[in-house]
Amino acid sequence: MNPVQRFDTRAWLLFAAMAVLWGIPYLFIKQAVDSYSPPAVVAGRTLIGALILLPFAIRRGALAPAWRRIGWVLAFGAIEMAGPFLLLGHAEQTLPSGLTGLLVATVPLFAALIALGGGDRSVLRPSRAIGLAIGFAGVFLIVAGPGLAIEGGGGLIAVGEVLLVAVLYAVAPFIVAHKLKGVPALGTITLSLFAVGLFYLPIGLLTQHETPTSTSTASLLALAVLCTALAFIVFFALIDHVGPVRAPLFTYVNPVVAIILGTIVLSEPLTFGLVAGLPLVILGCWLAATGGTLRTRTMPEDELPRVAPG
User: Fold this and answer.
1) What pLDDT is stored for residue 247 in this prediction?
2) How far apart are CA 224 and CA 100, in angstroms?
3) What is the pLDDT of residues 218-261, one digit of tens each?
């Protein structure tokens, strides 16, 4: 193992930071859309995040390589940010934040199915196939189980929106792996954030019809500063320290953080389906993604791991 890529106190602190930074966005999104329109939330979050990341990207010389492939950078931004951020904001006008975070955690399940469609037969190995079955059984239990805190068809549409977000999050890394290979991730992310923010800025201004509350404004700033800019900076530090294969393992903790915060801060109901489905989704995702082992293929340093920022 590269001596720099090791587990020590710093590594565990970075893991803990990422588990929180990408476990809390669902709480902040829920609070932000209380008085901001979803497009306004997306515009504010991405533009502020891009401005914070810009000096880091310039210092690392990451913008020029990304600009040379601007078409695929824009495609990545549309699939990883423009679509998901808007869908999450709209869905959380109906869904509890904890439920949203748990449904987004199904990304590895959809990534496995996409890989299978692309010819990766390893997805059919018993352990990974069982993981798919367990994971989707957990989703069914969450959505169809007793005590689900959604109402009517609007709630089911919101569930569908969040599951679509998971599909988009599963697709985006394939663009990075095949079309943006060798392009620094920091450059790709910074340019994507700028493009998404500029696209949504006029839409956000046109759809913002009420005076934002201080709580919503603070949540929007937290989304931009903590969950976007700081989270990516910490994530890059984590990759440098433990390697790109182990770095995404914190994502299995994110839904737990989302559910705990939703329950404590927003008094969201902790339903039977949520409690019973949580371990099934996490176990299923782990099996589907890894086959039951922490050893996965070696990825190039500049390939963005399959993570799902909220």
Assistant:
1) 67
2) 19
3) 999 999 999 999 998 998 888 778 776 566 777 888 899 999 99
Per-residue pLDDT tens digits for 216-225: 999 999 999 9
Quote the CA–CA distance of 231 and 5 in Å, as a whole number.
19
Share of the chain above pLDDT 90, in %: 54
Query: What φ, ψ does residue 254 adopt, rounded to 5°?
Result: -50, -50
pTM, 2 dp: 0.87
pLDDT, tens digit (0-9, with 9 covering 90-100), for 42-90: 999 999 999 999 999 999 999 999 999 999 999 999 999 999 999 999 9
Spatial separation of the C-alpha atoms in residues 186 and 239, rounded to whole Å: 12
* Local structure of residue 230 (DSSP, 8 states): I
Nearest Cα residue to 180 out of 265, 278, 67: 67
Q: CB-hemisphere CA count at 13 Å for 254?
A: 30
**Rounded distance between C-alpha atoms, residue 295 and residue 299, angstroms:** 12
Alpha-helical segments (H) within 22-151: 25-32, 38-59, 63-67, 70-77, 83-91, 97-104, 107-117, 126-144
CB 230 within 8 A of CB 14: no
Closest CA to 167 of 251, 108, 242, 231: 108
User: What CA–CA distance (Å, rounded) separates 97 from 100?
Assistant: 5
**Helices 107-117 + 126-144 axis angle, to 10:** 130
According to the 3-state scheme, what is the secondary structure of 241-281? HHCCCCHHHHHHCHHHHHHHHHHHHCCCCCCHHHHHHHHHH
CB 187 within 8 A of CB 63: yes
The DSSP line for 28-64 is HHHHHTTTS-HHHHHHHHHHHHHHHHHHHHHHTT-HH
